[in-house]
Amino acid sequence: MKITVGIPAYNEEKNIASIIENLSKIADTIIVCNDGSSDNTGRIAEKMGAVVINHERNIGYGGAIRSLFLKARELESDVLVTMDSDGQHRISDVLPVAEPIIKNQADLVIGSRFLEGNQENIPKYRKIGIKMITKLANASLEDAVSDSQSGFRAYSKTVLSAITPSEQGMGVSNEILMKASKNGFKIAEVPIVVSYEGKTSTQHPVSHGVSVTLSTLKFISIEHPLKFYGIPGLIFFGIGLIFTIMTIQGFTETRQILLSAAVIGVGTIIFGTVLLMTSIILYSIVNLVRENSSK
After folding, report:
1. Pairing with 14, which of 52, 148, 234, 256 sits 20 to 30 Å away (CA)?
2. Does domain 3-223 have CATH number 3.40.47.10?
3. Domain-wise residue ranges, the chain
């Protein structure tokens, strides 16, 4: 079975050589996506024997993952393991992460930081953010996961053929999970240990969290428009009816219109109606697109 390791890299000339050297002992092929680095990351990777994809400019983590998927598909890899280039992932975890796919037990495997008590090394702010984003992602997954934001993953040949990531930012991790779940792929998790010593992230945690949350909400709204727009629409419509009834009752008793209740009633009914119509229209469009794409 051909195991390929894919590494998205941006200005990682200090780490990339040692990572490739250690990976060459266990991987059949190593792909490095040099995502617009201004240092020698790409040149070093080429000298070390890796297959290098060079982006002319930095387009983001999601864009790098997309390029790795496409190249692994082109190379007919049986398993693609993705890991970070900043040294926080252990080389020794590569084969355990790939093992469920090798044994035909899973199609996608997440190296989770939250299994078997391995979360002690995770900074508290990251732990809180990861868990919140994971809960949001789990709302659209058939089976809940513990670490939706882990970049240490393994993908089967079937997943590589069926999924082409489109998100260019950090939201690509949740995008792939939601698409995999929609396609009925088996998702598994294995424990990993991550090192957070030194500088291991180039993006501010707040902007990272906001970006991933917005991206996840976007995909949830596309995949489940009736839930995403329809349920809030019903709630607002119901609230509007309550305030409208209160206004009518107040008028029949006092012959005076309570302006605030009337405005709230009419406003929420209109807003709820818009959300309900949006959910129905998007649901129809999404299903029409799916039917056409399956022909």
Report:
1. 148
2. no
3. 3-223, 225-294
* Identity of the amino acid at 43: R
CA torsion through residues 71, 73, 74, 77, sign: positive
Each residue's pLDDT tens digit, 94-108: 999 999 999 999 999
Compute the radius of gyration of the chain from its Cα atoms. 24
Question: What tens digit of pLDDT does each residue of 44-81 get?
Answer: 999 999 999 999 999 999 999 999 999 999 999 999 99
Separation CA 90–CA 99 (nearest Å): 15
Q: Which two tokens stand for residue 46?
A: 């080429």
Q: Name the nearest CA neighbour of 3 among 69, 72, 79.
A: 79
Token pair 């080429």 in the structure block, residue: 46
User: Taking CA 62 as the corner, what is the angle to CA 24 and CA 160, rounded to the nearest 5 degrees?
Assistant: 60
Residue 117 Rama label (left phi>0; alpha psi -120 to 50; beta) = left
Assess contact for 115 and 190: CB atoms under 8 A.
Answer: yes
